[in-house]
Amino acid sequence: MSRLKCFIVDDLPSQFKALEIMINNHKELLLVGTSSSPADFLKEIDNGLIIDLLFLDIEMPGISGLEIANLLKGKTKIIFTTAYQEYALDAFSLNVVDYLVKPIRQERFNEAVEKVFKLILADQVSVLDQIITIPGKHKGNYIKIRLGDVCYITSDSNYMTAVVKDKSYIFISSLEKIDEQFPSKHFIRVHRSYLINLNKITSIQGNLLYMENGDKIPIGRTYRKTVLPKLISLKC
Protein backbone atom coordinates (compact mmCIF):
# COMPACT_ATOMS: atom_id res chain seq x y z
CA MET A 1 0.00 0.00 0.00
CA SER A 2 1.32 3.47 -0.88
CA ARG A 3 1.82 6.15 1.78
CA LEU A 4 -1.37 7.69 3.10
CA LYS A 5 -1.81 11.35 2.17
CA CYS A 6 -2.64 13.24 5.38
CA PHE A 7 -3.98 16.71 6.11
CA ILE A 8 -4.27 18.62 9.41
CA VAL A 9 -7.07 21.09 10.14
CA ASP A 10 -6.80 23.01 13.43
CA ASP A 11 -7.63 26.65 14.08
CA LEU A 12 -4.49 26.91 16.26
CA PRO A 13 -1.36 26.62 14.08
CA SER A 14 0.66 26.01 17.25
CA GLN A 15 -1.02 22.58 17.38
CA PHE A 16 0.35 21.55 13.96
CA LYS A 17 3.90 20.88 15.15
CA ALA A 18 3.19 17.94 17.45
CA LEU A 19 1.08 16.19 14.80
CA GLU A 20 3.60 16.99 12.06
CA ILE A 21 6.34 15.29 14.09
CA MET A 22 4.20 12.20 14.69
CA ILE A 23 3.22 11.97 11.02
CA ASN A 24 6.83 12.37 9.90
CA ASN A 25 7.87 9.65 12.37
CA HIS A 26 5.52 7.26 10.59
CA LYS A 27 7.08 5.99 7.35
CA GLU A 28 3.71 5.09 5.82
CA LEU A 29 2.23 8.59 6.18
CA LEU A 30 2.76 11.67 3.99
CA LEU A 31 1.67 15.12 5.17
CA VAL A 32 0.33 17.01 2.14
CA GLY A 33 -1.01 20.11 3.89
CA THR A 34 -2.25 21.96 6.95
CA SER A 35 -4.89 24.64 7.44
CA SER A 36 -6.03 26.81 10.32
CA SER A 37 -9.17 27.75 8.38
CA PRO A 38 -11.94 25.13 8.00
CA ALA A 39 -13.49 27.15 5.16
CA ASP A 40 -10.21 27.30 3.23
CA PHE A 41 -9.73 23.55 3.67
CA LEU A 42 -13.20 22.83 2.25
CA LYS A 43 -12.38 25.05 -0.73
CA GLU A 44 -9.28 22.93 -1.38
CA ILE A 45 -11.45 19.80 -1.30
CA ASP A 46 -13.86 21.40 -3.78
CA ASN A 47 -10.89 22.26 -6.02
CA GLY A 48 -9.82 18.63 -6.26
CA LEU A 49 -7.65 17.93 -3.21
CA ILE A 50 -7.64 14.20 -2.49
CA ILE A 51 -6.52 12.92 0.90
CA ASP A 52 -6.65 9.55 2.63
CA LEU A 53 -6.61 10.72 6.23
CA LEU A 54 -7.72 13.92 7.94
CA PHE A 55 -6.58 14.93 11.43
CA LEU A 56 -9.39 17.23 12.48
CA ASP A 57 -9.90 19.53 15.46
CA ILE A 58 -13.49 19.93 16.68
CA GLU A 59 -13.98 23.34 18.29
CA MET A 60 -13.18 25.87 15.54
CA PRO A 61 -14.75 29.20 14.60
CA GLY A 62 -17.18 29.29 11.70
CA ILE A 63 -17.33 25.60 10.86
CA SER A 64 -16.83 22.95 13.52
CA GLY A 65 -14.96 19.72 13.03
CA LEU A 66 -18.22 17.84 13.53
CA GLU A 67 -19.75 19.70 10.59
CA ILE A 68 -16.73 18.99 8.39
CA ALA A 69 -16.81 15.31 9.33
CA ASN A 70 -20.46 15.14 8.37
CA LEU A 71 -19.72 16.79 4.99
CA LEU A 72 -16.84 14.39 4.26
CA LYS A 73 -18.53 11.24 5.52
CA GLY A 74 -17.46 8.32 3.35
CA LYS A 75 -14.97 10.41 1.35
CA THR A 76 -11.91 10.13 3.60
CA LYS A 77 -10.86 8.62 6.91
CA ILE A 78 -11.02 11.03 9.85
CA ILE A 79 -9.29 11.09 13.22
CA PHE A 80 -10.50 13.76 15.63
CA THR A 81 -7.78 15.57 17.59
CA THR A 82 -9.27 17.65 20.37
CA ALA A 83 -8.71 18.92 23.89
CA TYR A 84 -12.27 17.97 24.85
CA GLN A 85 -13.68 14.56 25.70
CA GLU A 86 -17.37 15.47 25.59
CA TYR A 87 -17.68 15.10 21.81
CA ALA A 88 -16.79 11.39 21.80
CA LEU A 89 -20.42 10.27 21.37
CA ASP A 90 -20.91 12.66 18.42
CA ALA A 91 -17.72 11.35 16.86
CA PHE A 92 -18.98 7.79 17.18
CA SER A 93 -22.21 8.67 15.37
CA LEU A 94 -20.17 10.20 12.51
CA ASN A 95 -18.24 6.94 12.13
CA VAL A 96 -14.80 8.54 12.45
CA VAL A 97 -11.86 6.18 12.89
CA ASP A 98 -10.63 7.41 16.25
CA TYR A 99 -10.80 10.19 18.82
CA LEU A 100 -7.50 11.50 20.19
CA VAL A 101 -7.47 13.81 23.19
CA LYS A 102 -4.63 16.35 23.37
CA PRO A 103 -1.87 16.11 24.39
CA ILE A 104 -1.50 13.12 22.08
CA ARG A 105 1.05 10.40 22.79
CA GLN A 106 2.95 8.80 19.88
CA GLU A 107 1.81 5.29 20.93
CA ARG A 108 -1.84 6.35 20.93
CA PHE A 109 -1.32 8.09 17.58
CA ASN A 110 0.15 4.90 16.11
CA GLU A 111 -2.81 2.85 17.33
CA ALA A 112 -5.23 5.20 15.56
CA VAL A 113 -3.25 5.13 12.32
CA GLU A 114 -3.13 1.33 12.40
CA LYS A 115 -6.94 1.31 12.54
CA VAL A 116 -6.99 3.49 9.42
CA PHE A 117 -4.73 1.10 7.49
CA LYS A 118 -6.89 -1.88 8.40
CA LEU A 119 -10.07 -0.10 7.30
CA ILE A 120 -8.59 1.10 3.99
CA LEU A 121 -7.22 -2.35 3.19
CA ALA A 122 -10.60 -3.92 3.94
CA ASP A 123 -12.37 -1.34 1.75
CA GLN A 124 -10.03 -1.91 -1.20
CA VAL A 125 -10.24 -5.67 -1.05
CA SER A 126 -14.02 -5.77 -0.75
CA VAL A 127 -14.64 -3.30 -3.59
CA LEU A 128 -12.00 -4.44 -6.07
CA ASP A 129 -12.78 -8.12 -5.53
CA GLN A 130 -16.36 -7.63 -6.73
CA ILE A 131 -17.26 -9.65 -9.81
CA ILE A 132 -18.97 -7.74 -12.61
CA THR A 133 -20.81 -9.25 -15.54
CA ILE A 134 -20.65 -7.87 -19.10
CA PRO A 135 -22.42 -9.14 -22.22
CA GLY A 136 -20.36 -11.40 -24.47
CA LYS A 137 -20.19 -11.40 -28.28
CA HIS A 138 -23.15 -13.73 -28.68
CA LYS A 139 -26.71 -13.38 -27.44
CA GLY A 140 -27.16 -14.90 -24.01
CA ASN A 141 -23.40 -15.04 -23.46
CA TYR A 142 -21.97 -13.19 -20.43
CA ILE A 143 -18.45 -12.76 -19.14
CA LYS A 144 -17.53 -12.42 -15.47
CA ILE A 145 -14.63 -10.10 -14.60
CA ARG A 146 -13.02 -9.12 -11.30
CA LEU A 147 -13.47 -5.35 -10.98
CA GLY A 148 -9.90 -4.78 -9.79
CA ASP A 149 -8.52 -6.47 -12.94
CA VAL A 150 -10.06 -3.87 -15.27
CA CYS A 151 -7.30 -1.58 -16.52
CA TYR A 152 -9.57 0.81 -18.41
CA ILE A 153 -12.69 1.00 -20.54
CA THR A 154 -12.82 2.86 -23.83
CA SER A 155 -15.85 3.72 -25.93
CA ASP A 156 -16.61 4.04 -29.61
CA SER A 157 -20.20 5.24 -29.83
CA ASN A 158 -22.20 2.55 -27.97
CA TYR A 159 -19.46 -0.06 -28.26
CA MET A 160 -17.38 -0.42 -25.09
CA THR A 161 -14.04 -2.18 -24.85
CA ALA A 162 -12.98 -3.36 -21.40
CA VAL A 163 -9.24 -3.92 -21.25
CA VAL A 164 -8.55 -6.56 -18.62
CA LYS A 165 -4.93 -7.62 -18.12
CA ASP A 166 -3.89 -8.91 -21.57
CA LYS A 167 -7.44 -9.34 -22.94
CA SER A 168 -10.14 -7.08 -24.35
CA TYR A 169 -13.91 -7.54 -24.20
CA ILE A 170 -16.34 -5.65 -26.45
CA PHE A 171 -19.92 -4.99 -25.35
CA ILE A 172 -22.75 -2.50 -25.86
CA SER A 173 -23.37 0.16 -23.22
CA SER A 174 -22.44 3.81 -22.53
CA LEU A 175 -19.44 5.21 -20.70
CA GLU A 176 -21.76 7.49 -18.72
CA LYS A 177 -23.65 4.48 -17.39
CA ILE A 178 -20.46 2.61 -16.50
CA ASP A 179 -19.00 5.71 -14.82
CA GLU A 180 -22.07 5.88 -12.57
CA GLN A 181 -21.85 2.19 -11.67
CA PHE A 182 -18.09 1.87 -11.02
CA PRO A 183 -16.68 3.10 -7.65
CA SER A 184 -15.35 6.65 -8.08
CA LYS A 185 -12.63 5.99 -5.52
CA HIS A 186 -10.93 3.65 -7.99
CA PHE A 187 -12.22 4.65 -11.43
CA ILE A 188 -12.17 8.11 -13.03
CA ARG A 189 -13.23 9.57 -16.36
CA VAL A 190 -10.18 11.22 -17.97
CA HIS A 191 -11.49 11.62 -21.52
CA ARG A 192 -14.86 11.43 -23.23
CA SER A 193 -13.77 7.99 -24.47
CA TYR A 194 -11.84 6.64 -21.47
CA LEU A 195 -12.63 5.50 -17.94
CA ILE A 196 -9.51 4.29 -16.12
CA ASN A 197 -8.63 2.30 -13.02
CA LEU A 198 -6.52 4.62 -10.84
CA ASN A 199 -4.68 1.64 -9.39
CA LYS A 200 -3.35 0.72 -12.84
CA ILE A 201 -1.53 4.00 -13.54
CA THR A 202 2.25 3.62 -13.49
CA SER A 203 3.23 7.19 -14.46
CA ILE A 204 1.95 10.54 -15.72
CA GLN A 205 3.81 12.41 -18.45
CA GLY A 206 2.24 15.62 -19.68
CA ASN A 207 -1.28 14.77 -20.83
CA LEU A 208 -0.61 11.04 -21.11
CA LEU A 209 -1.28 8.33 -18.56
CA TYR A 210 0.93 5.25 -18.77
CA MET A 211 -0.98 2.19 -17.69
CA GLU A 212 0.19 -1.05 -16.11
CA ASN A 213 -0.32 -2.99 -19.36
CA GLY A 214 1.84 -0.54 -21.36
CA ASP A 215 -1.01 1.40 -22.98
CA LYS A 216 -1.00 5.21 -23.08
CA ILE A 217 -4.26 7.02 -22.29
CA PRO A 218 -4.79 10.69 -23.23
CA ILE A 219 -6.31 13.17 -20.81
CA GLY A 220 -9.07 15.05 -22.63
CA ARG A 221 -8.79 18.83 -22.87
CA THR A 222 -12.09 19.45 -21.07
CA TYR A 223 -11.06 17.05 -18.27
CA ARG A 224 -7.56 18.44 -17.56
CA LYS A 225 -8.54 21.13 -15.08
CA THR A 226 -10.32 18.73 -12.71
CA VAL A 227 -8.49 15.47 -13.44
CA LEU A 228 -4.82 16.50 -13.32
CA PRO A 229 -4.86 17.78 -9.70
CA LYS A 230 -6.50 14.54 -8.59
CA LEU A 231 -4.03 12.36 -10.47
CA ILE A 232 -1.02 14.30 -9.23
CA SER A 233 -2.35 14.13 -5.67
CA LEU A 234 -2.78 10.37 -5.95
CA LYS A 235 0.81 9.95 -7.03
CA CYS A 236 2.36 12.06 -4.27
Strand order of the largest sheet: 2-1-3-4-5
What structural class do the secondary elements suggest? alpha/beta
Q: Distance between the terminal alpha carbons, to the nearest Å?
A: 13 Å
Q: Which blocks of ≥5 consecutive residues have pLDDT under 50?
A: none
The secondary-structure element order is EHEHEHEHEHEEEEEHEEEEEH
The total strand number stands at 15
Shape: elongated
| Main pleated sheet | 5 strands, parallel
The percent of residues in helical segments reads 25-40%
Average residue-wise pLDDT? 88
Rounded to an integer in angstroms, the radius of gyration calculated over CA atoms is: 20 Å
Number of helices: 7
Structure commentary:
The protein is an alpha/beta fold. It is 31% helix and 33% strand. The chain is built from seven helices and 15 strands. The protein has helices at residues 16-24, 38-46, 65-71, 88-93, 106-128, 175-181, 224-234; strands at residues 4-9, 29-35, 53-56, 77-82, 98-101, 131-135, 142-146, 150-156, 159-164, 167-172, 187-191, 194-197, 201-205, 208-211, 216-218. The strands form four sheets. A five-stranded parallel β-sheet has the order 2-1-3-4-5. It has a five-stranded antiparallel β-sheet with strand order 10-9-8-12-11, covered by helices on one side. Strand 4, helix 4 and strand 5 (98-101) form a beta-alpha-beta unit.
